[in-house]
Design goal:
Structural class: mainly beta
CATH architecture of one domain: 3 Solenoid
CATH superfamily of one domain: Single-stranded right-handed beta-helix, Pectin lyase-like
Strand content: 35-45%
Radius of gyration: 33 Å
Length: about 600
């Protein structure tokens, strides 16, 4: 027993000595050479690895020629704070440095420009760095980054400060941002091949010139509004010179500045890679597919314009309005934004009307920042919410009154109840509107949420006006048909057998109408519906009815219908008919 105790004591003393000695053992240092200060022209004659920074430029008019060799760092991750080549901050700045001809890899910054001007980075391959080229917030100007290959870095080129820089003829494919430009602007970005990143070209300053850039296969190819969530951004931040020589996935970029009275549609512009409208007025954009950019479409300081029938897919923000007012956004589809993205964003934007849009987003359906007196109704908001920045106490309208109604919110499907009707939802009978209002915050409430998704059917075009019949239903609706001759709207409904279906059909009174609500004839498979409620306002008739689910045909008949010919044709047709009658009469009597 005593031997065991002595042995245990010996082991404990030995262990204590080992721990004590370990406290004074220096950790292993990373292998590699210390930094090299460059005061005069330097030509590298071998591959070299550094444990920290690589080359530190200390003088003006220096040429650092890597001469085809590789400089290798200790790891291209955040926090190592290492640079393959650094031009450090100095009060006077450093001028006219050239860095060329080699490979820079495995640093936090391939080349870091803290304060320099008229410098050139050319014919360098950057790979496995956190940043290929990084220009910090301090003032730097007139630098040229040309003819480099920047691949497999986390970020490619990031210019956070300075102006009048040139980024040209680079080949880039990086994980996050390929090109990000802040600073004071006036940069030239030209002839770059920018592919396979999360971000292509991200502009956070104004008055930049873009020419002949090829962007493809980026998650979001271009952004002209990095600071979209910041209020108070001035107009000059959005002014860019971007022409159609720049392409997104082979389609030209259209960036309109100071334009008015322009129609942009699939007929005049069959291919659009990106569309930005800055300081414009009375622009109509319709029937376009806009995909895979930071914003599907941008309106900045743009007023009195219309966005309709746009399909916006895989953008960070589907529709972005910044300091834009009195616009109409209608009948658009926004789908598959990022989880951090938004369907429609209003920042510093007032008196806009947003209706009839479909938002199938992963992030927020509608985001409102310091924007007031906007009206949003008859939108389908699936799988996402509305968010109004509480800091600014903005107030907006989220419905079109009663009986027109508000929006469909998919997240409320299990809390909606429809037992009553009327402006106060206190009258007997259902109407397709939830009895429970939807509160977004204290100043924003949808008073009349719809009980099902709303759909829009193109009934006809008359006198250059398109007439839509709306439906709200828990059924699958198909085979919509409008007959002027029969004064009839018909469609099929389908749903789970032995469940109750409902439809709320909205018909424009200029399209088809009755003299009294009770004159409407609604049948389901030839029989009256289980329940029918007819409501009217100045412009529409609202017909709510229920039925038992199966495949059924719904027919709705009115008393009056829109004329066969537009009003501007009626007088000429009357005159032609009268003239023909006169000619026939004279011929008969002349014989």
């Amino acid at each position: 027993m005593m031997k065991k105790i002595v042995l245990l004591a010996f082991v404990l003393v030995l262990l204590s000595l080992t721990i004590f000695e370990a406290q004074f053992v220096e950790p292993l240092k990373a292998t590699g050479e210390p930094p090299i200060e460059v005061w005069t022209d330097y030509t590298l004659d071998r591959d070299i690895s550094f444990s920290g920074d690589g080359f530190i430029i200390k003088a003006d008019n220096v040429v650092l020629n890597l001469n085809g060799h590789t400089i290798n760092g200790s790891g291209g991750t955040y926090g190592t704070n290492t640079a393959g080549v650094i031009i450090p901050f100095s009060w006077d700045g450093i001028y006219a440095v050239t860095i060329k001809n080699g490979v820079i890899k495995n640093f936090e910054y391939g080349v870091k420009l803290e304060q320099c001007s008229e410098c050139a980075i050319t014919n360098i391959t950057f790979t496995q760095n956190l940043y290929g080229v990084h220009q910090t917030w301090t003032f730097s100007s007139g630098n040229v980054i040309r003819n480099n290959t920047i691949l497999n870095n986390t970020n490619g080129i990031e210019l956070l400060g300075g102006d009048n820089n040139t980024i040209s003829e680079n080949i880039m494919a990086n994980e996050v941002d390929n090109i990000l430009i802040g600073g004071t602007g006036n940069n030239i970005v030209s002839d770059n091949i920018v592919t396979d990143g999360y971000g292509g070209i991200n502009l956070g300053s104004g008055h930049n010139t873009l020419r002949n850039n090829f962007l493809a296969n980026n998650r979001h190819n271009i952004a002209s509004c990095t600071y979209w969530s910041w209020t108070g951004n001035p107009l000059h931040l959005f002014i860019q010179d971007i022409d159609t020589s720049n392409t997104v996935d082979g389609k030209p970029i259209y960036y309109l500045v100071n334009e008015s009275n322009v129609v942009i549609d699939s007929f005049a512009f069959p291919e659009v890679g990106y569309l930005g409208l800055v300081n414009c007025k009375n622009i109509t954009a319709r029937n376009l597919n806009l995909a895979e950019n930071f914003e599907g479409i941008l309106l900045a300081y743009t007023n009195d314009s219309v966005l309709e029938n746009l399909h916006l897919r895989n953008n960070l923000n589907g529709i972005l309005l910044y300091n834009s007012s009195r616009n109409i956004i209608t009948m658009n589809v926004v789908e598959r934004t990022d989880y951090s993205g938004n369907g429609i964003v209003l920042t510093d934007s007032n008196f806009n009307t947003i209706s009839g849009n479909m938002m199938l987003t992963l992030g927020t359906g509608v985001r409102i920042i310091n924007s007031n007196n906007n009206t949003l109704y008859h939108n389908n908001i699936f799988g996402s919410l509305a968010w109004v920045d509480p800091y600014y106490e903005a107030t907006n309208e989220w419905d079109n009154g009663y009986p027109s109604g508000g929006n469909y919110w998919s997240d409320r499907v299990y809390v909606n109840v429809d037992l009553h009707s009327g402006p106060n939802q206190d009258e007997t009978g259902s109407d397709g509107i939830s009895d429970i209002a939807y509160s977004i915050n204290a100043n924003n409430t949808d008073r009349f949420p719809l009980m099902g998704p709303i759909g829009f059917f193109n009934a006809c075009i008359w006198d250059e006006t398109t007439y839509y019949v709306h439906k709200v239903s828990n059924s699958t609706v198909s085979d919509f048909y409008f007959s002027r001759d029969d004064k009839l709207v018909s469609f099929n409904v389908n749903g789970t057998v032995d469940t109750v279906g409902f439809c709320r059909v909205t018909i424009p009174r200029e399209l088809m109408w009755c003299d009294a609500p009770e004159e409407w004839n609604v049948t389901v498979n030839g029989n009256p519906p289980t329940h029918l409620k007819a409501m009217e306002d100045a412009d529409y008739t609202y017909l709510y009815f229920t039925y038992n689910h199966s495949i059924q045909e719904v027919q709705i008949k009115g008393v009056h219908v829109i004329p066969e010919f537009p009003s501007f044709l009626i007088l000429p047709l009357f005159m032609i008919t009268t003239l023909l009658a006169v000619i026939i009469y004279r011929r008969k009597h002349s014989m």
